[in-house]
Amino acid sequence: MIGTGYVGLVSGVCFSDLGNDVICVDKDLNKINGLKKGIIPIYEPGLDELVKKNYKSGRLRFTTDLSDAIKKSNIIFICVGTPTKKNSNAADLNQVFSVAGEISHNIKNFKIIVTKSTVPVTTGDKIEKILIRKVLKKNFSVVSNPEFLREGEAIRDFNFPDRIVIGTSDKKANKLMKSLYSPLLSKGAEYLNTSRRGAELIKYASNAFLATKITFINELANLAEKIDVNIEDISIGMGLDKRIGGRFLRAGPAYGGSCFPKDTRAIVDTAKQFKTDLSIIRNVIKSNENRSKVLLNRVSKILKNKIRNKKVTFLGVTFKANTDDMRESSSLTMIPSLAKKGANIRYYDPSGYKKDFDKIKNVTFCENIKMACLNADLIIIHTEWNDFKSLNFKSLSKKKSLIVYDMRNILSHEKMKRENIKYFSIGK
Ligand code: UDX
């Protein structure tokens, strides 16, 4: 596994847990030394136990020596980052291509090179071109095998995937990949062998479609608020139609994270290169970018446009629960905007303090929920951590006129009403 970021580390550890010998490589020596001592660079429930268990058994190794790891492996997974390029929507593939170059110098016998990083369509073709310069054609096969892991659920998602997608027209490579995944297939996962370009596109299409579903329900929530309809009933009513399905129809803040924003932008960019306009996805991106503004307008309305000196508490700032990831979290837009308007912001997140707000005036991290909520005028539930689902807000804030704005619809309207708390939620 080349790259011990989210995808590489989780997949590597899980493959070793299935009984394979796995070498995880990273050029960051500190990370590798940390991993050898059981220090996990990312927050993922259950990952540290699995790392320790498999490292102890000797099936899982960590190294910075890329060429040695390549020589010792039959299957090489490229799991390096593919961030959005600066001043562009395209994915930056520098790391992928530089790894492909390294691989090409170290192949003497047949190896499968698999892209697990999310890479634009035709990246596999480009990797093949790099390899063919140094390696005999019969000694390698480039395969696409996208991952569909969700942060916070990654180990479960790895072990119980809906599907395994393998993009290759090489029968030998397909057979080896199928045998690698056979323990998961015997548990019921579907196996799809398609073209390499097809597999690359499936990944982007899946993420873009899920992002579209969320954005769709978020826009409908705006309407529901105006016509006195409960958006949750709409999600349930729609989701019961098996053609639609109920998942990813939870209205809330703008979607964030390391994948949806990046991948929607990248697929639009790829399509543009092939002179195709993906207008639906383009508009999803636009609508999502506007989402924080919509919710901020509601905050202004809730506070009757008097934001200055108001004590506003954010419960949860990560882009979703069970992760410490702040990438593209809507709190990064909302908190600075409210702070700029003069609100005093305190925040608490179970995953701890965030340096992202360091330079913003009037924003303070609190060590616990109690400190964050004391004397708050408005409590905003931004992330759906379990920790926030059964709180007694009245006794936490002590303010008579406390307002709660639940951006994740995790609280009961009736309960809030009984407790005499002014309660606002999404799409209701
Ligand atoms: C996503 C994909 O689900 C995963 O398959 C892919 O490999 C990586 O990207 P992740 O970013 O970890 O995973 O989170 P996910 O649980 O999909 O949520 C993404 C965003 O959508 C979050 O901001 C979340 O809060 C939001 N979301 C999700 C909603 O607003 N409503 C929903 O119903 C579901």
Task: Based on the model shown, name its key terms.
single chain; 428 residues; alpha/beta; Rossmann fold; N-(1-d-carboxylethyl)-l-norvaline Dehydrogenase, domain 2; 3 domains; six-stranded parallel sheet; three-stranded parallel sheet; 13 strands; 43% helix; binds uridine-5'-diphosphate-xylopyranose
Task: Characterise this structure.
With 428 residues, the chain is α/β, with parallel strands linked by helices. It has 3 domains: 6-194, Rossmann fold, CATH 3.40.50.720; 204-289, N-(1-d-carboxylethyl)-l-norvaline Dehydrogenase, domain 2 (Orthogonal Bundle); 290-425, 3-Layer(aba) Sandwich (Rossmann fold), CATH 3.40.50. Helices cover 43% and strands 13% of the residues. The protein is built from 17 helices and 13 strands. It has helices at 6-17, 29-36, 47-57, 66-72, 94-104, 123-132, 154-159, 171-180, 182-185, 196-227, 231-239, 260-273, 279-302, 331-340, 369-373, 393-397, 413-418; strands at residues 22-25, 60-63, 75-78, 111-115, 140-144, 163-167, 190-194, 311-315, 344-348, 363-365, 378-381, 403-406, 422-425. The strands form 4 sheets. A 6-stranded parallel beta sheet has the order 10-9-8-11-12-13. Strands 3-4-5 form a 3-stranded parallel beta sheet. A two-stranded parallel sheet has the order 1-2. Strand 12 (403-406), helix 17 and strand 13 form a beta-alpha-beta unit. Helix 5 runs parallel beside helix 6 and helix 12 (260-273) packs antiparallel against helix 13. The chain binds uridine-5'-diphosphate-xylopyranose (UDX). Uridine-5'-diphosphate-xylopyranose is lined by residues 147-151, 207, 210, 214, 248-250, 252, 255-260, 319-320.
